[in-house]
Amino acid sequence: MQPTEKRNNGVAGAIVPDSGRDPETGRFIDGHPGGPGRPKGKRTAELRRELLAETDISELRQVWAKLLELAKGGDLPAIKEVLDRTLGRPVQALDVEPSDAGPMHIKLQFDDAG
Fold first, then answer.
1. Domain parsing of the chain, residue ranges
2. 77, 83 contact by CB (below 8 A)
3. Any residues with CB less than 8 A from the CB of 32 and at least 6 apart, and which?
C-alpha cells in the first residue's frame, strides 16, 4: 500500500496509509466511515430465523429434557449450561487492589424503575 495525501484530523496534506486510519490514534479519518459493521451478526440473525421456523416447541422441550437429564447425571458442561440458561451467567467481578494513586471514588446511579 502506498501512503496517500488525505486530510488527517484537520491537518490537510498529512501522509496517511490507505487504511483510512490515523497512524497515531488509530481512529478513522474524515471520509472513511469504517468497515461494514459486524457482517456475522446479520448472518447469525438469518440462521436463527431459519432454525426457529424449522423447530417447534415440542422439539425444544425434548432438547431441554435431555440437557436436564445430563446435568442431573453430573455432566459438568450440562450443569453449567442449565444454570447459565436459568439463572443467567455470573457477572464478572472487578479486581480492585489498593494502589498508590490515592483513594478511589465510585459513583452509583440508579434508575427509578418505579
1. 39-87
2. no
3. 20, 21
Per the prediction, the chain carries an average pLDDT of: 77
Cell 440458561, residue? 85
What is the pLDDT, as a whole number, of residue 6?
45
For residue 75, pLDDT over 60 is answered with yes
Query: Which residue type is seen at 82?
Result: V
Question: Strand, helix or coil at 104?
Answer: coil
Residues with Cβ within 8 Å of 30's Cβ and at least 6 positions away in sequence, in order, are: 7
What pLDDT score does 14 carry? 53
50 to each of 43, 62, 64, 65, 72, how far by Cα in Å? 11, 19, 20, 23, 31
pLDDT of the residue at 58: 94
Residue whose C-alpha cell is 424503575:
113
Residue 11 φ then ψ, to 5° = -105, 105
Model-wide pTM > 0.85: no
